[in-house]
Design a protein that fits this description.
By secondary structure, this protein is of the alpha/beta class. It folds into 2 domains: 98 residues; 250 residues, no CATH class. Helices cover 17% and strands 41% of the residues. It contains 3 helices and 35 strands. Strands 5, 7, 8, 10, 11, 16, 17, 24, 26, 28, 30, 32, 33 and 34 form a 14-stranded mixed sheet that branches. Strands 18, 19, 22, 23, 25, 27, 29 and 31 form an 8-stranded mixed sheet that branches. About 3% of the residues have low confidence.
Length: 489
């Protein structure tokens, strides 16, 4: 009986031992499986991270490629492996990490900028050679900023009076007297400058410390003022000196725009004794073009050098009947060998150019803002560029409350309203877009006490944010591609 008990107890112990051993074996197996699974997850996570790095390397490569060839969206191959559709690609490249620890590939698909935009889309998919099923895809947008991102850009000195407002980024290669209001960066390329008599600072030390009176050739002393000075309230936004904007570098190749107009745009050729074209934009996306056959007798106003009065013709006396045009697909309207008078409602995207080629300083052409010039809506779907070989001018007969929706560029002259012998003070002028002027700009003429004696009392410049990467057709850009956005598919 005792022996049977001992045998039974030994059997129970053996069974218990087997159960415990089995449990530990199962546990060990589970732990081993868990370890393998965690290792697999770790390998996959590493592959995912490395695939993302490879995809980013693909984007960096193509940004480098665009820096060397801004208009190549086919990876230098001149062909589209996708068969003619957009985006172009895919273009597959091998990748080796700097440490040679990881190798893989990235596949690129490039979407060129749509018409009227400078934004290119780069889609890059990366993977490891050792784990090609794990991929990461990112899409990045780059764009070349247009000069239109400036609300105001000038190659000279400028004075904003107390009733003048600048909304958006402003830059001057000369000095700035700012008595008005600005809501964005205001920059000058000058640490200090000799303030001209036109800024009313040659009779007293008005520009404040550090103001040093210096004697220059002539009867008067002039003040050496800081790059930006004045009574404007937002001085925390003033910055100077900054690098100069090269106006020689932004001069448009007008011959290319002339070719674009003759091939698929609107080429308006001035012949005989005609003076140019009167262009009236219409809300239906068309415009009327009238040949200007004669001008009214001249009005006494300052000459181009603003040194003496001249009788200058600027208003239309007679013109031919209108010819209706649709705004062309490429948007380029070129007035050859004549001036352009513009007004109306702009529905679409267009650029008006007035020039005589080859360039001759005595034959340069101007654009006159004949009446209100407005977009159908200020929603980013409409834009107008005005590129004058000489001046962009608001004449004496313009409305007392004038609205200009446009980016204006005076390549060799100025954007301005002249000073007339028969002075006329008007109420307001509002610019929605930008002013790019080589020479001194003004809408208003004031006396020594700051009172407007001719021109517009209240002036406002409003920045159009939509034109930074979607400027008017063929409008000049500046610099290289800049980062806009990043997202992962």
């Amino acid at each position: 009986m005792n022996r049977l008990c001992r045998d039974g107890q030994q059997g129970i112990v053996l069974l218990t031992t087997l159960i415990i051993a089995s449990f530990f074996l199962v546990l060990a197996g589970g732990l081993a499986t868990l370890g393998l699974y965690r290792n697999k997850l770790n390998i996959q996570e590493v592959a995912k991270q490395q695939s993302l790095h490879i995809a980013e390397a693909g984007v960096n490569y193509y940004r480098w490629h665009l820096a060397h060839d801004q208009d190549d969206y086919m990876d230098g191959t001149g062909s589209d492996p996708g068969g003619g559709g957009e985006p172009y690609g895919p273009y597959v490249h091998s990748y080796i990490a700097p440490s040679s620890a990881a190798t893989g590939k990235y596949s690129l698909e490039i979407t060129p900028p749509p018409t009227g935009s400078t934004i290119v889309r780069i889609k890059s998919t990366g993977w490891l050679d050792s784990n090609p099923k794990i991929t990461r895809t990112i899409e990045v947008r780059y764009g070349i900023p247009s000069l239109a991102h400036f609300s105001f850009l000038t190659n000279s000195e400028v004075w904003f009076g107390p009733t003048e407002t600048v909304i958006g980024e402003m830059h001057a290669n000369g000095g700035i007297r700012m008595d008005g209001t600005n809501d964005s960066t205001m920059a000058s390329a000058r640490a200090n400058y000799t303030c001209p008599s036109g800024q009313a600072c040659n009779t007293s030390a008005t520009c404040g410390a550090p103001c040093t009176w210096i004697n220059v050739p002539g009867p008067a002393d002039y003040c050496d003022c800081p790059g930006i000075w004045g009574a404007g309230p937002n001085q925390s936004l003033w910055t100077f000196p900054v690098p100069t904007v090269d106006f020689n570098g932004i001069t448009m190749d007008l011959a290319d725009m002339q070719d674009a107009a003759t091939s698929s745009g609107a080429y308006l050729n001035t012949t005989g004794s005609n003076k140019g074209y009167h262009i009236i934009f219409k809300a239906d996306g068309h415009f009327d073009a009238r040949v200007v056959t004669a001008l009214n007798s001249g009005i006494s106003q300052l000459n181009d050098a603003w040194t003496a009065y001249s009788n200058i013709q600027e208003s239309i006396a007679t013109e031919d009947p209108a010819v209706d045009y649709v705004i062309p697909a490429n948007g380029v309207i070129f007035v050859n060998d004549g001036d352009a008078w513009v007004e109306g409602t702009v529905n679409g995207r267009a650029t008006v150019v007035a020039a005589t080629l080859p360039d001759n300083a005595t034959k340069r052409r101007s654009i006159i803002i004949n009446n209100n010039l407005q977009y159908l809506a200020r929603d980013g779907n409409h834009s107008l560029g005005l590129i004058a070989q000489k001046h962009v001018k608001v004449p004496r007969h313009a409305p007392t409350d004038l609205v200009i929706d446009a980016i204006m560029l005076a390549q060799n002259g100025r954007v301005f309203r002249n000073y007339y012998a028969s002075r006329l003070v008007k109420n307001s002028i509002e610019v929605y877009g930008g002013i790019l002027t080589n020479q001194t700009w003004t809408w208003s003429w004031v006396n020594g006490s700051g009172t407007v004696t001719d021109g517009y009392t209240n002036t406002t410049s409003i920045y159009d944010s939509s034109v930074t990467y979607a400027p008017p057709p063929s409008f000049p850009t500046t610099g290289e591609y800049a980062f806009i956005s990043w997202e992962e598919d």
